[in-house]
Amino acid sequence: MNKKYSIFITVLFCLFTFGFGAALILTPSRDFSEQENRFLTQFKAPTADTLRSGKFMENFEKYVSDQFPLRDQWIQLKARSERLLGKQENNKVYFGTDGQTLFAQFKAPIQEELEKRVGFVNALGDCLDVPVYFSLVPDKSAALAELLPANAPNVDDGTTIQRAAELCGDSVTYIDLRGALVSNSDFYRTDHHWTTMGAQKAGQALLEGMGLVQQAGDLKVLGYQSLPYTQVSDSFYGTTYSSSGAGWVEPDSIYTVIPEGGTKGNVTVTGYPEGAPIESSLYHPEKLEVKDKYAYFLGGNQPLCVIQNPDAQGGRLLVVRDSYSDSLAPFLAEEFQEVHLFDLRYNNMSLTQYVTDNGIDQVLVLYSVANFSTDINLFKLAH
Amino acid sequence: MIFSSPFFLFLYFPIVLILYYISPLRWRNLVLLIVNLIFYGWGEPVYVVIMFASIAIDYSHGRIVTRCKAKGNDRGARMAVASSVVFNLLLLGFFKYYNFIAGSLAAVGAGFLPVIDSLPLPGGESIPFTLPIGISFYTFQTMSYTIDVYRGDARCQKNIVTFGTFVTLFPQLIAGPIIKYKDLDDQLEHRDHSFEKFASGVQRFTIGACKKVLLANALGPLWDVYLATPSAQLTTLGAWLGILAFSLQLYFDFSGYSDMAIGLGRMLGFEFLENFNYPYISKSASEFWRRWHISLGSWFREYLYFPLGGSRVGKGRMVFNLLVVWAATGIWHGASWNFLIWGLYWFVWITLEKLWLGKVLDRAPAWVCHVYGVFIAIVGWAIFAVEDFSAMGPYLAAMFGFGAGALDTNFLYYLRNYLPILAIAIVAATPLAKTLWHKLPERARQVAFPVLMLAGLVFTTAYLVDGTYNPFLYFRF
Asked: How far apart are CA A191 and CA B216, in angstroms?
């Protein structure tokens, strides 16, 4: 290397490192990453304490990484490069063989863990006089197994649900949703949640399981089954997309079928997002403007939400919920006078007390199989 | 602080370069000393105290040895050397081996040493008792200094700032290469800063960063899968795939780090000795260790093996010397029994080669020797990598056909997913790319180099910013 050429290389390297370093310091920090759906680390000025404990350094390194210029583009470049190298996954997300469906990895719980968890549901059944139903939403990897990369480990093969159903005691009725959710359109491609179509099919199966509509063969035609689907968004990128970095995947669309207020227009919703009751609605169009568009349904996670439909035939249903219940709720509201969505993660009231106090007729414990395998609040079920 | 982080590459190092090059020559060692201490204190600020102690004690011992020698007091000089060695070994022994010794004694019913979880600080606080990073490297470097001053191989350093710069020199502080003072002596006083040297440093650093971030980090998750696989489910092909991934990961992690150190050194005007030379093309155990972690092997040879008499002794004594050196090499890699076993594993092979096997290998076809060399290295890594004693046996058993069958469906998935990166890594572990590169005409290289360099930096940055997986295997050594 002669001198001129060496200067060229030196300048090139310095431009690259100094350039991005300077851009990092000079450009304003972002609060939130839409792509990753999380708050980004901000610069925190050092104090004597944080310097000595090393917390300042730890935070600062995260800050540099989070606020790095063009962060979203770097993440996408990495995902594309992984795919180019023949990888079928990135950041624990499988790329479906159709190139468009993303699967979050699923780790089946060990038998003892599952026994303990189903035990909490059985305990709830034992201490309540009303019927208790239990159902798990199959993981997308079980429902759409044909789109998974061949031999992919860490997916749901349906056996977790099988084992959970077998562990149910006499006081609990298990409702199997595995047969209902098998179509590509039942789950969002970029998110772990079921779509409105998936929720509708699951709703039908749940109502059958609870004896509210007759079994197949003499199927009761539900009032909304002839209604058309309305597209409310064509730009939904879900949480699986966020962690995958798979920039080549097209956004999902969100549809509704039940209109606001129900088919007869008399459904009212009371939300408890901050603990106090407020007037709410089945749908929250303002959430379609933000990243987490799934919160369009009922407005997102909250400790409690009560939906009333005085004209309905069914009685009072309590659902021990996770977020899957939010898009299912409009269908349940058609059939029940009251639907109480009770979230153990944010609600510390006694569930059994609540059932008695509110004259609940039936309880449904409904979780996605992934949430049921990992949630740390299940012990509250029978508390 | 580690080199393979956006913080180091885009803020810390650029700032160091600016401060370094705007300072007049005579201030540069002081600038380096300061940035070295910040670099070291970044992860655990309290441990900077160890650095100060190391500098002060080794500096003064060097001075004492020199003064004693000037007065003809050989006994005094030897005492000073011994005192320095004892201090460094105590430092290393306490932080690295104390809990291992205490735990092992307790396991055989002699638990008179309490296990330490945290160190109390003045003022009533305490910090977790962790291994200060790089302690295995810098204690060896400073030990060699006093010994070399006594032997007359190195001059005594009278300037404590210059000496402190040597002890703390950040490019090689936490993962080597292990540099002897005598090899750096002149450069500490006077070093050339030229664009040619800087550019060659850039080249070397970029290669190292790519090896660490694009190859080692990419292979790590594959090994993690098989390390986490319960023994009862390990299949033969799976176990081999896992340990192959680890063998390549470790090589690219460590040699990539050495390359980055050498590159950063050059950018600051230093020239460090090489640490790796394509170990996986070795034809024997002895050759492997002349190509793997060269600076460690040469340290043990010079300061342990030769003083014991080396090979110029009777056969029995030589075998004993080898046993001592390889037990020490093993346990240097970590305070755990598997590392000792791994050291003894190499002792067996190297002794066999010295006594008899070497002559057989000399007559064997080259390919047989290559297969032998890479095979014993990989089997050795299984002992090295599976620290859990109850898992090591089953892992080795699975490798040799006593596992849960030949292959499982997971293996097919992982093979399919990692085959391209494995192929790239295997080729990159041979000198092929280097040979081809030097066959290119000068002009083509000049055009290709900046393109490849930028591509390397861009992809490294992408993987670092995404940064979900960036372990550093030699952190604990």
From this structure: 31
pLDDT at A203: 92
Please state the rounded mean pLDDT for residues B218-245: 93
Burial bucket for residue B97 (CB in 10 Å: 0-12, 13-18, 19+): middle
d(CA A245, CA B245) in angstroms, rounded, equals 25
Task: Please indicate whether residue B61 is annotated as part of the active site.
Answer: no
In a domain, B1, yes or no: no
pTM (two decimals): 0.89
For residue A68, give the chain B residue with the closest CA. Answer: B465
| Euclidean distance between CA atoms B85 and B267, whole angstroms | 32
Q: Cα separation of A104 and A192, whole Å?
A: 7
Q: Does A43 touch chain B (CB under 8 A)?
A: no
Q: State which residue of chain B sits closest to A69, comparing Cα positions.
A: B465
Query: Can you give the residue ranges of every domain in chain A?
Result: 3-95, 106-382
End position of a domain, from candidates B131, B162, B190: B190
User: Are B10 and A1 a contacting pair at CB < 8 A?
Assistant: no
Q: Is the ipTM of this complex over 0.95?
A: no
Q: Which residues contact B103 (CB under 8 A, 6 or more apart)?
A: B115
In the predicted model, what is the mean pLDDT of residues B280-297?
Answer: 95
pLDDT of residue A218: 41
Check B463 against A10: CB less than 8 A apart. no
Residues 6+ apart with CB under 8 A from A313: A212, A335
Cα separation, B451 vs B435, whole angstroms: 19
In chain B, residues with a C-beta closer than 8 Å to the C-beta of A36 are: none
Q: What mean pLDDT is predicted for residues B225-254?
A: 94
Residue A199: per-residue pLDDT = 94
Tokens of B144: 């060699």
Six token digits for residue A339: 């639907």
Higher pLDDT, B5 or A134: A134
Is B468 or B23 the better-scoring residue by pLDDT? Answer: B23
* Chain A residues touching B470 at Cβ < 8 A: none
The confidence band for A321, taking pLDDT boundaries of 50, 70 and 90, is very high
Are residues B183 and B202 located together in one domain of the fold?
A: no
CA angle A71, A75, A79 (to 5 degrees): 170
Domain count across chain B: 2
Average pLDDT over every residue of B361-387 = 94
Q: Is the pLDDT of residue B474 over 70?
A: no
Find, in chain A, the residue whose alpha carbon is nearest to that of B45.
Answer: A52
In our burial notation (b when 16+ CB lie closer than 10 A, e otherwise), range A140-151 reads bbbbbbebbbeb
Structural domain that includes position B109: 6-190
The verdict on A148 touching B (C-beta cutoff 8 Å) is: no
Q: Which of B161, B190, B219 is the last residue of a domain?
A: B190
Q: What is the pLDDT of residue A157?
A: 85
pLDDT at A223 over 60: no
> Residue A52: helix, strand or coil by DSSP?
helix
Same domain, yes or no, for B260 and B324? yes
